[in-house]
């Protein structure tokens, strides 16, 4: 695509954005409980539109070259991503569920399931590549220093029964190979003898031989034409991929080269822009700085004189926190500024009086008020639905206005080489120069005002008053005590790596967690059947809760704060893979606080406190960071089993909860727990520590179909018409993605891959390997489902479904009475 095409895409995106901003204001109005479905529908449609905008802005920011446009696009991209996360939070509160059935909304908006995919901005990894390389280099250096101490490799010790089985299998394989070679030679001799006998018996004349050859050849040609016509038809209707894979790969390669060239041009233009910013700033300071400074001083002195003439005294100088002299230059008269300052003083006095009155009142009145407020809030929550206030919408509005004022009607012919706009740059830098000079002028003029007051007080014989010092406000949160203030960060990293807490995560892309979406979710909801989430829904939730929040500090500050996630599902569904994918997509560092990993490390109460403190301190320093706890149920055991008593898995629980509370919106640190036995844990403690609980079920038919196809192709196999993937998906009901992967690896050996051209794959080759594995039984899945509906969100969802059932029954009863 050319720059003009990207500009047209930007223009059309802002038309959509304007429509969405117009729809934001009505959403703030509360909606009665009876219109819950309509409210969910509006939220869902808005969510899908913002997802489409996020995809567009990601493409534009990745491919546009002009540096000033890219800065605006970056703000728009981050704010739209923040709005997507806010709408997701509102959808969860409206739907009382982590997964949403949007198939009906997709159909109404004429969108496809691909539009549900959460796009991960490309700049997450592209712009952090240098920082990630530095971190990897630092960790590699520490590992190289620790290798002589910690990396003494030991050969794995086998039990004597396992060793015997290994020797027996090797010996049987050797004997089998010898026997197969011997039998192959016997068969060759027999075949040779049989051919000699047939040549003596069957003797054709010339005409019969010609007819036989023609029959075979014509049959072969006709079968070949039929296969070709069938394949052409299937390609035409889109049921088979194009055979011109080389041509397709060439086109994709050329497109990739074009994108890389544009990224290189972005770097060149960015360097030019950085140099121009420094030069423009310095030149403005030298040429216009003294004039701006003198003009500000004259205006402030004139304001002093006018206020003294009106009121008989000099005004109070505005604080730096309230804007300083900017209030004076905001096109206001001295009377208006004076009135504003007086109003601020009166408001502060009123607040102080209210606080003093509140302290004098008794505790009983406070309790009554709290009770009434709580009841009112509960009543409002039960009867109305509304969207929470947004931090992202004002940023989106400001970005949209900047686009409208600066770039909407800007023709590309003015800057054909995509360099920066010098006029716009001068306007921006002039504001920065004025801001810097204003701070300097404010300090000088405060001192000048103080001297003027002293001089006037001496003339009039008034005693001079000392300025009152404002008491600092106490913050609600206590600062965490630094237990390692005397230690360097390198020593902390070295200790964590040495104990195996800080690890290098495996590279796993989130798109490799394969699964299809739920196509009949709305139908099941209408029938009051709560559908299980699909693997596609799980992948989207992990992208929203984990990847988008950790990938950018701006998105993290705008999005609703989520500190922890719990992934619940049977063994083999891919929970650990999702943790690795979050680390890969965001470049996050992985800290392993699993009970099995901490056994025998940091003993005692002080040891646990030190461990948690070091981990969270290092995680903040190396952010983004993921703290992973495998077998998270062990930290919250109802009763500790005998085999786990030596481990003492509950020792970290209290300190972990305290450390999580200390995480603020600027800290890109996330706790992710994984468990397959949440039933053995205390529900209250588990749900208090993990803010979001995501259920990862066994795959449904659609996901199994996609899994089989993806895994066979990833292994190097070819999916032909002889391979019935639909049958494999039906037969593998109950098996996890891990089981399917094991079956594929066992069936597609290197030898089998070499013979694919002669003997295509069939479904029966996988069944024997699949039958040896243990599936997830329905009772286990139902047990996890029952546990999930005991969580706080699950309970509210069950109550909502009961209320809906009761309302439907009441409607039916009324209709029967009318009849």
From TrEMBL:
Q: Where is the composition biased (Basic and acidic residues)?
A: 341-363, 373-383, 799-813
Compositional bias annotation for Basic residues: 465-478
Q: What residues does the ATPase AAA-type core domain cover? A: 565-680
Provide this UniProt record's keywords sorted from A to Z: ATP-binding, Nucleotide-binding
Q: Where is this region: Disordered?
A: 341-387, 455-484, 799-819
Highest rank taxon of the organism: Eukaryota
InterPro entries referenced in this protein's UniProt entry, alphabetically: ATPase_AAA_core, IQ_motif_EF-hand-BS, N-DRC_Component, P-loop_NTPase
**Gene3D superfamilies xrefs:** 1.10.8.60, P-loop containing nucleotide triphosphate hydrolases
GO MF terms here are: ATP binding; ATP hydrolysis activity
Give one Pfam hit by family name. Answer: IQ
Q: Per its record, how is this protein called by name?
A: IQ and AAA domain-containing protein 1-like
Gene (UniProt): IQCA1L
